[in-house]
Specification:
Blueprint: H1 12-23, H2 44-56, H3 69-86, E1 93-96, H4 99-116, E2 123-127, H5 132-140, E3 144-148, H6 158-162, E4 169-175, H7 187-196, E5 200-204, H8 212-217, E6 234-238, E7 250-254, H9 257-260, E8 265-267, E9 275-277, H10 287-323, E10 328-330, E11 338-343, H11 349-359, E12 365-366, E13 371-374, H12 383-395
Helix pairs in contact: 2-10, 3-10, 4-5, 10-12, 11-12
């Protein structure tokens, strides 16, 4: 067996040439044909700023806050901004590497609180539309997961959830919005249910956290969802989604600073001295922290409002155009900028239609019931091309095309 380890080092030019060739096979997200994996802000000046920040902080390590005070300051200020948006104490949270880690930390905190009450095998109670990151967290943390079907409106059903609450329930979850359908769960009812059973309530705003505050300010209806809702105890929100930072930057916030302390890990029972961390990671890349701060400072309120208007207007164009194609409909009543569209007449949309769109360079997420779009500002320029190609795909999809593997939401 030949070892892949090189006998001799390769030249810079050779390495760059190889990676460039390979990278050319990846999706060109700047061209607008990627959905969900990259949130294209359509802002060359912002992208250039992020590149400069990434270069400056490429080799830094946020593991030790005492030697990187600039990173401590920027993370604190990012958390303070998020706390102001969502309505909690300015120091009641941390940054994380993405939605999966933010959710993991919220579930870990719920387990710690439950165990302090004598619950040996805590449970999390989630709607079937909740992100798989909750199942992943429950798996790693050896907790039980109780999944509850959603209502006819595709939103979490508080009545059905109430029937599943038990003495072991440690956390009840709602999404704003859920990934599959873009609908916002009834957070006041879910939070009230949690409060009535003296348990925690997490709002998964990984998608909506950095858009809904501005969505509301541009006149779109947004139901109550944040810490202003009594009973909400934690919120996850990804800055690398509609906060327009690059991967991976997220925040996990709590209704009070004391809950954040359950994330802390300290250890000194070894020769190396004190080791401590506030999140699951030890070594933490510095670039996403610095870039999150820089992105927020660059865009400001006016920038985020402008991006929200662009996303809203572009989403409307996509939805109206899809509905106008005979045989297609949008699933449910999406409340933000992501949605599924499906077939009225048994068209093989997730396989055959999806394959034709693949052939034309589009990368759509394939769900159990249809194809999925996540709209960002960079899609404003390609709506007409997309609708033209989709019209062609519906008319010419055939019935014998092979099904290609799809991939759901990434946090």
């Amino acid at each position: 067996m030949t070892s892949p380890f090189p006998d001799q080092g390769r030249s810079v030019g050779d390495i760059i040439a190889a990676q460039t060739e390979w990278h050319d096979e990846d999706i060109d997200w700047r061209g607008g044909k990627a959905f969900s994996l990259v949130y294209n802000a359509d802002d060359p000046e912002l992208h250039e700023l992020q590149h400069q920040v990434a270069l400056t902080y490429l080799h830094e390590n946020a593991l030790n806050p005492f030697v990187y005070p600039s990173l401590v300051r920027m993370e604190q200020e990012v958390v303070e901004v998020a706390a102001g948006l969502f309505g909690t104490e300015p120091n009641a949270g941390t940054m994380a590497s993405g939605g999966t880690e933010s959710i993991f930390l919220a579930v870990h905190t719920a387990r710690a609180v439950a165990r302090s009450k004598g619950i040996d095998r805590p449970e999390i109670l989630i709607p079937t539309t909740a992100h798989p990151a909750f199942s992943k967290a429950a798996h790693y943390l050896e907790m039980d997961e109780v999944r509850v079907p959603v209502g006819a409106d595709l939103k979490a059903d508080p009545t059905a959830m109430a029937e599943k609450v038990s003495a072991n329930t440690a956390l009840i979850v709602g999404s704003t919005p859920c990934y599959p359908y873009g609908v916002i769960d009834p957070i006041p009812e879910i939070a009230a249910l949690a409060a009535s059973h003296d348990t925690l309530c997490h709002v998964d705003a990984c998608l909506g956290g950095w858009l809904l505050p501005f969505w509301e300010q541009i006149g779109e209806p947004v139901p109550p969802w944040n810490f202003e809702v009594e009973g909400v105890t934690s919120i996850s929100a990804d800055i690398h989604k509609y906060g327009y930072c690059f991967k991976g930057a997220s925040v996990i916030l709590y209704s009070e600073e004391a809950l954040r302390h359950h994330q802390y890990f300290f250890f000194d029972d070894w020769p190396g001295g004190m080791y401590g961390s506030a999140t699951t990671a030890g070594t933490r890349p510095a670039a996403p922290i610095a870039a999150a701060w820089a992105t927020i400072q660059f865009l400001g309120l006016d920038g985020y409002l402008a991006k929200a208007r662009s996303v809203r207007d572009t989403t409307r164009r996509f939805k109206d155009g899809i509905i106008a194609i005979e045989g297609l409909h949008v699933t449910g009543e999406p409340q933000m900028s992501l949605f599924e569209f499906a077939s009225d007449h048994g068209i093989e949309i997730t396989s055959a239609v999806g394959d034709v769109m693949d052939d034309r360079g589009w990368k759509l997420d394939r769900q159990n019931g249809g194809l999925h779009l996540m709209i960002s500002p960079g899609h404003a320029h390609i709506v007409d091309q997309f609708l033209s190609d989709l019209t062609y795909a519906v008319a010419n999809h055939g019935d014998d095309r092979g099904v290609k593997a799809g991939y759901g939401g990434v946090v």
